[in-house]
Structures are given as structure tokens and as C-alpha cells.
What we know:
By secondary structure, chain A is mainly alpha-helical. Helices cover 73% and strands 0% of the residues of chain A. Among the domains of chain A are: 11-60; 142-263, no CATH class. Chain B has helices spanning 3-6, 12-23, 27-49, 52-69, 79-108, 124-140, 144-155, 160-167, 171-193. At the A-B interface, helix 1, helix 3 and helix 4 of A face helix 3, helix 4, helix 6 and helix 9 of B.
Amino acid sequence: MSRSKLTGADWADRLSEDMDEARRQAMSEHIGKDPECRAEADAIDRLLKETAAVRSEIRQAAASVDWESLPAVIADRALAAGDRAARRAPAARPWAWLAAFSMKPVMAGLAAGLVVGAAAMYFALRTPGVPADRDGAYQASGEFLVRAEREMARRNTLDYLEKSQYVLLDVFESAGEGPVVPAAVRTERARDLLQKKKYLNAQLETLQMAKAKAICDQIETLFLELSQIDDELPAAELGRIRSYVEERQLLLKINLVKKELQSGV
Amino acid sequence: MSDVSAGREVGEAEIAALLERIQAGDREAFMTIIGLYQRKVFVMAYSILRDREDALDAVQETFLRLYQKAGLYRPGRSFQGWLLQMAKNISIDSYRKHQRKRREFETTRPVEEIPVAAEPDRDGDSAAADLRGAFARCVDTLAERQKMVFVMRHYNELQFNEISETMKISIGTAKSLHFKAVQNLRKRLAPVLGIEP
């Protein structure tokens, strides 16, 4: 040590004063002999002297502090601040339980996904219906109302066809040997059926009952003629109507449509 | 100046128990912790702020924050290191705030009110104060860990084993950081101290 320069580790140990007596002695001897190391040691000592001056200044500043009462002052401030914070805290809210969950991004994403998904399911699967009535009246779904309307149209059409069939049979019987229905009665029935047809038209069109509508239209044309004839039909006229019915196989078609309507097709 | 002045050394278990009581609002426990560490926190704050009142404000702020964040302390970590780190951060924030205020103040003051930087006939006390100011500024410019070790060693007067425990570094690293800090200060203060660079 007496010949070689001091290393960084040597200086670090000297600074930390972590050396045994023999090493300290050897180092002091080396510093005394080596001008470079002595200059370095002097510079460090000068620096540490200045450090001691700052330390002294800090001690002086600390000496004037009332350390005995400071803890109480700080504790009072802390407790007062805590009370203020507690007073500012809002009353428990209904959704306060949510605070128990730390809403990390993944959790927040999942929660948002559930909410959006539930809303989408609701709008996609809900049954289209009549909006809620404020009077609390009976409410029915749109599908039920459509079914009910179709059922009424089916029954009305069946009734119309059946009555039409009777009128047509009366006409045929008048043309043949059977009992004759008075002309006035037949005309009246034809007019009733024409009225009924007007009401039926809307239903048949709305509910797309094309086959029934076609046969009903043909019958209507015939009844229009019959309704205008109050007197007994001449044989030629009856024959013409009969051939019209037969050509178009109206009675047969009426039977077929009736069967279809009766079976609910 | 150290815990010895506060009367006794404290173990990790005792600190943990005190912090638990503080969380429950125990005033006595809080005062005990303050009594144990207030001087160390003051020294850390003063070494940065260089002003008694500012340092005391920083001490209060540090313990108020401890009161709010006592639950964040994790056993196994050095409580002293955690607290001093908190004090250092608060002091640096305060220093920046004051520096900004000083700058604003100086720019709005008339020129004749601003003190002259160097007076030829100043006395010895003011020269010494300037030297201490320069010294403090140089300590501030040290790297973070070097500064912490230097302040703890020379101002808080902690032993290297205490510093290593506080900073969670080995004793060898603490000594090495201290040596580097002294070397850097020596270089930077060479013109002021009148020594060879």
C-alpha cells in the first residue's frame, strides 16, 4: 500500500470508516508519503468539513423546533381532515355495492358486454304488440289479432258461400220442376249478400285469401244481376244464368272452397 | 437527530401494528409514529428545501399523507425507506412550487428591489452561507440513489447497514454509491472549495 496508489475501494472504505486499525494505520502512512493521495485526501476532508457545516446548519434549524408538541399538532390536523372527508362523503347509495368490485378494464368490458347483449336480445326477441294502454284495458299481441281476424274472415266467407249456394240452388230450382222461391225473396237475399260482400272484400284482400275472393267475385257479378230483377225470371234468363253457373262450375268451386275453409287451410 | 433521539429502535412488527391502529383512527398510535420519525423526515426535507418553515410544512404533509395511506404499506418493505421516499417526493414538489413562485415574484419586482448577487464587502458569514448554498445545489444535482445515500449518511447520520436496509441495497452498494457521490461533489465543488479538480 505504501508504494501503489489507493484504489476506489480503498477510498470507499476510508470514507465509510469501515476498516480495522492496522489498515487504517497503513493507509494513513501511505497518504502521508504520497503527494497525490494526500491531495485527494485533503480535498475529501475539505468536502466532508463542508458537509459537517451543512449538518450543523440542519441541527441548528432542528433545535428550534418544538418536537414534543409537533406530533399532537399533526395528529389533530390529520383527524380534522379525516372528519371533513367523512362529512363530505355522500350517503350510501343504492349502487354502492358496486364499489366492492374493483372495475378493472376486463371486468368493465364484460359488464358492458352483458348490458349491450341483454338490450340487443330484448329488442330482437320481444313480441311485436300493441303499445301499453294507459287505461289498463285488455291487451293482445299483434299475432293474436291477425289470427282472430283471419278466423272471422274464414267464418264470414263460409257463411257467404253457403248462403250464396242456397240462392243459386233456388235459381236452378226455379228453372226446373222444383218449388219456386218468390222472386222478391230471392232478390232480397241477393241484395243482402251483396252488402255482405262489400264488407267481406276488405277482409279477403287484407288477408290474401285469393281463391275465396275469386269465387266470391264471380258470385257477386251474378247477384248484381239478380238484385236488379224484382219480377219472376223468364225461362230464357234463367237458362242463361244457369249456363253461366255451370260453365264456371260455380257450385263445384263453392263446395271446394268451403271444404278448404272448413279444414282451416 | 436519529431514532436514538426519539428514545428507541422499532421493529417491523411494531410498525405494522402501529399502522394498523392508525388505519382504525388511533390518535396515540399516529403520534407514536410521528415521534419516532419526525426528525428524520425533517432532515430529509431540510436537505432539499434549505428552509426551516418549508421543511416543517413538508414534515406535516408527509405524516398527513402517511395517515391517509397507512394501508398501502406492505410488511417486509422498509418502513423508514418508504416514509423517507415519501418525504423526499413531497419536498421536491414543494421545492419546485416555491422555485416557480420565486421566479414569478422576481419577474414582477422592480429591478432595484432584487438583491445584488455578489457584494465585495460582505462578511464571512454570508460567504459561508453562499458556500453552503453551492454545496446544497451540488448535492441536488447528484444521481437519485447517490443523493439518497449521501443525505442519509451525512445529514440523517445513518450507518451503512441502516442505509442498505432502508434502500433495500447491499452494504457494499451503499458504500460504493456514497463514494461516487463524494467523488462527484469533489469534482463539482473544486472551484468553490479551492481544491484541485
